[in-house]
Design brief:
The complex is a heterotrimer of chains A (370), B (353) and C (355). Chain B has 353 residues and is mostly helical. Chain B is built from 15 helices and 2 strands. The N and C termini of chain C lie far apart (53 Å). The chains are: A mainly alpha (370), B mainly alpha (353), C alpha/beta (355). Chains B and C meet through helix 4, helix 6, helix 7 and helix 14 of B and helix 1, strand 8, helix 7, helix 8 and helix 9 of C.
Amino acid sequence: MQDQTRLETDQGNAIGGGEAIGFQPAFVTPTLAQRVGPFAHEILLALVLVVLMLVAKGQDPRDGPWFVSTGTQQNLLLNVWDLALLSLPMTYIIITGGIDLSVASTMALSGVVMGICFQLWHWPMWVAALMAVLTGGLGGLLNGVFVAKVKIHPLIVTLATYSAYRGLAEGISLELASWYKAKPVYSGFPDWFTSLGQRALLAGPDLRHPHWYALGAAGWLFIVAAIVMGVVLAKTPFGRTLYAIGHNETGARFSGLKVDRDKLIIYTLSGLAAGVACLNNAALNDTAQASMAAGLELDVITAVVLGGTSIFGGRGRIIGTVLGVALIHETREFVSWHFTDDTLRRLVLGVLLIVVVALNALLSRRSTRK
Amino acid sequence: MTTLDYRSTQQGGGVQGFLWTLAAKREYALALLIVFIVAAVSIKRPSFLAPSNLSDLLVYCTQPAIVSCGVMLVIVTGEIDISVGSMLGLLTAVMGTLVAGKTALVPGFGWPVWAAILATLALGTAIGLINGLLVTLVRVPSIIVTLAMLMILQSITFKIMHRGNITDIPASLQWFGIGDLGSIFGLQANGAPVVPLGKVCIWVMAATLVGTWGLIRFTPLGRRIYAVGSNPHAATLSGVSVARIKLFTFALTGLLVGVATVVTTLGAYDNGIGTGFELLVVTCVVVGGVSISGGVGSVLGVFLGVLLLQIMKPVLIFFGTGANWDKAIQGALILGAVLVDHFASRRQKTGGH
Amino acid sequence: MSIIRAAILGASVLAAAALAGCGNNENGANTTTGPAATGAANAGASGKQYTVYMLPKQKGIPYFETCAKGAQQAATELGDVKLTYDGPVDGHADEAAQMLRQWALKDADVIAVSVNDPAVLAPAMKAAQQRGVHVITWDADADPDTRTLFVNQATAEQIGDALVDTLAKDINSSDPKAASGEVAIITATLTAANQNEWMRYMNEELKKYPGLKLVDTQASDDNQTKAKEETESLIKAHPNLKGIWAISSAAFPGAAEGIEQQGKAGKIQVTGLSTPNDMKKYVLNGTVKSVVLWNTKDLGYLTVYTAEAVASGKYHPGDKTIKAGRLGERPIVNGQVLLGDILVFNKDNINNYDF
């Protein structure tokens, strides 16, 4: 896909991209269109979101609590943090032209390790949680080694580890279950741990009606991570290297950029994020097991691509991903809220994905031709 | 492939060097691996080599192998198709609904079998064309188009199948999946074919494999597919319409999913058919040595990839190891196959010339 | 050019939407409101409508669709129930938990849960209870303090026992206790909570049949093709195989098809849980002797009656019975509303059932 990718990006690289090498000559004052142009995709997403919220607001409040009320939204947000946390490093990876299909499987493996440490070996919860994050990091590092050092295509590497990590999680939990005469499902985590996933921080005195800014622990973590990772991507040499790898890996190598090291870092980061997301998932459901988060990897990739990151690399922004995550989350919850039909939900998400990306492609070609 | 003298001088000689040289070509590496696995299981359980079992193993390969031919060509042009799983599910549901009798438990349209088959093939091609048009004309990346299609087709299947499993499948339709080619036109005595020629679905698979091989080897179209994959710029400059070639590969994939639907061996259709099938196919194609960056891949390699992945489950059951580590073994196998190939070809590159 | 592209995009999206639309109409509305005008006997004098959400383990599979039919019938009869039936189509428990949390926020009076995985769903069920929503379970139970009542068609223990007893009887109809040979299980996934619970009790019950030896347990991943291929390999790998339990909705027809195609119909028995309509084909052609299940329509029916009783306050803790329309009074034992016996469908009686 890589070679042909070049062609595609060269042809339609007008919006949202090309931060890596700023072509804008300093002496020309940019027009409004030129200023806004690069953010066309983000604006599009934001518009869709706003329209969605307006439609949602138009519903009869007698049907029950409003979909857009703060309390409802705060509670619904509990469902999104796994996806949100994973989507940040995935943006980095996809910007370099890579992909990580193994994130959900890594989550499962981390969860199983945590469950075993806590429940079968009776380690303190915080040590078990640390082990989970470490396991995630290790899984990501292994992906990174195969991609960056052994130089196998990331799709193939993570396709293999997608089965391997989930398989390990299953194998280990089932094997130990028969050893210890226990179930391959781990639950009963301490209250302080589960409350991290189930309750909002800074909720104020009244738990039923928390402050409007109250969010779960994972939510705060996501906000901090998104800001940090967004700044790193946009403003630092590391970020520029990622774009350069996505644009032209050979070129990046020749210009002395530390391509391999940076790839290793981002895949490890993805694994670490999976470890953290597994903590959130385990806390929310008070369960860790090998079937955790099955199928989540496709949602994560959908969110990132919906956010305007080019699947071919070289183009994308954290703010886009944040909007992509928000749009997927709100669409999903909105469709379930009003139509209560799980099949419809998938259909809408599929159509939304195709329409937004296609609009982006059409717009981008129009602006190139001008 | 450099030959024997290469082995003895460059690779340090001996059996090891010879194996490395063989492994450098994906087809040989896979064939070796398959022979090794089959030998191992046959030593423990000789009944694994019974002709009926070997025939069944080929039957297990039919659906993935037929679809892999199409997906391989798509990947060779530098695109990807991950909608084949839910497409298989939808086509099966549609085919079943068309042939099921009007008075069956889950009533259908009662179409004649030939009409239902034609409709299935046509619908498959049409969905493939939609994929292809969205990729080539609207220029949405193929992974996005087919990912979205995966979700869309799956929900349509659920809508169609909500009334329950379709069990009213005419015997003449099931013939394509489980019948013997020898009993064509109803040539049979006492329920057995007069001249047993092997399962129909195996012949269909063989025809697809040979057809794809012929397409690649002997037709200008086949050469163009590879040209588009290995260097799209050069292909465009030499007057090849990249878009048309890609459109063709997507439509062909849709058609082949239709073919795979017709040769299903199942006797009852439910709404879970095809789940995970897309990953199986992509894995087979990748293990078979098709480069995900486009331009490289052979039909033989893909078939061996399918064979390797599809015999694993029966092999493990014959070994009686229990199912706990199935997925882990499969993942390790994929990684192993890719790694062996990778190191072997690198070794050859650095070692030779 | 770009117009053509836009047109193609628009057309394909429309086509997809239209296709989905067709399906939608066919499916009908998901929400059934009992029309008060039909003279429903129980329509509350206050005119209060109770919003009941009913969550199956997996939406779209025949077993739960038939439950939904019974539930809709009850909602129509009662008149004061606004019933919504939805669940994850891929059967993932964490997705079920998400739906549950949403309904609790929205407008639910009662949520009736078929518990796919007690561990995953417990926090969401507790959270719903804290918001003042009544939670009952049906089809599969959870920890008693996470729900008010359990509409019990069969416990995991009863299911496990029935499966083992039925297969033993199919293998040796004259003297089930003396049934002998090798047996195997094809389950959904190796980590599926419900199936693992059944298998635990099946292993217990198997001790009563010293002649039966469990040789393998395979996972079908709820994929019929995979179940069929595994069955065929099991048959060949274990020449003394006498019986298979196929304990997932996709595994049962797959296993039956495998046995039939290997020419072992009648020689190797297979049983499992399924609606009669889905397995009628295999029962009538002799591949399957017995299908174990209960009346799923009645299960859905009883669930909605129970939900309404809990919401309207007709049910008081400590009550010994519950009134359930055409099913009459059903007994309540230890917080469990009992539906009735497990049914075994065979060649003689399967044509009497249509669900």
